[in-house]
Amino acid sequence: MIGVDSSTQSCKVVIVDADTGEIVRQGRAAHPDGTSVDPDAWWTALQAAIAEAGGIGDVAAWSIGGQQHGMVALDAAGRVIRDALLWNDTRSAAAAEALIDEFGADELSRRTGLVPVASFTITKLRWLRDHEPENAARVAAVALPHDWLTWRLRGFGPERPDLSELVTDRSDASGTGYWNPATGEYDRELLVAALGHDAVLPRVLDVGEWVGDDTGAIPRRVGPGAGDNAAAALGAGAGVGDVVVSIGTSGTAFAVSATPTVDPTGTVAGFASADGHFLPLVATLNAARVLDAIARLLAVDHAGLSALALAAEPGAQGLRLLPYFEGERTPNLPDATAELTGMTLASTTRENLARAAVEGMLGGLAAGLDAIRALGVPIERALLIGGGAQSEAVRAIAPAVLGVPVEVLETREYVALGAARQATRALAS
Question: Is 172 known to be catalytic?
């Protein structure tokens, strides 16, 4: 089986033994920087990563996980109309506000599980309509990054432009802003309100459903793929009652829920999971880089920062770091700055500052867990992943701050492994 993680930074490919689940080969290729990217760069990277992994001649099934929300606009001939706007492209912030003004946050969250922000595809389509009307008028189909790569790897594209063969999964569809996780249907009215006209949208495959790949010498089954967070939850083995806490450049907390969630405040995004459940998610801007900043200030490496933090008492004698170094998304305070409070002669020590950094960073994620719990989602266990989870201090302090038992998972390619699980499921169905 092959599982792919086409992320913002790179493309990772793992080839997995279907019987044991063990990775037997893997490959990687870099993606270009930027928030607006030619999708052909992803296609080139995917082919390079597959080649580095030894090719797919012996692969029976495959599936692609990828970064959510990116807008891939196609014309009637299957050509990419303009560079894809990625999740981290903020030029559509005003478009998000316009959509909220038109429909209301309550109505949008009820219909889609989301209140629009610049990340979501619907706002990027509105931006295209308003700022590049000639390009908007040419749009015949809208795909997400993993949808488009799946279509290309199945042999479609400008040379074989069958737009009806575009497919996606429920997790990635749930991040568009024009799909309803509760009903499993696209909301065409919202699509038209954003783009200005209707367009082909990828067919949403059910869990375990697959399509055929007839481009190779042997027949292959192609799984639905998934958005990156949903694929990571699948790869990590998260189930109902679990929350995955990912500490990277940014922080995310996403819980597996048996029921859909609606949050009119927009704090919790009501995504769908890749296993038929739901995936309420909270994102924070300030995560591992908080630790980086304080480690630099204290002139230590991350092991030294952990040693200092663990030498301090819980609560750091009242020293408190509000770690909004880059503003914050949860809560929505884009212009906020970091604050250090509770400074006394006794509390202002290197140890306490290190402890306050860890507790402050985890506190932002704990607030996210509280927001998810407030929607009635039970959280019984946290699965800790990401680079920040490798910190000894983070691992030791997390259970007390998050308020639940914590299991720290080993460093693995969880998005690609989640996609590989989908491929295995397709082969078994």
Answer: no
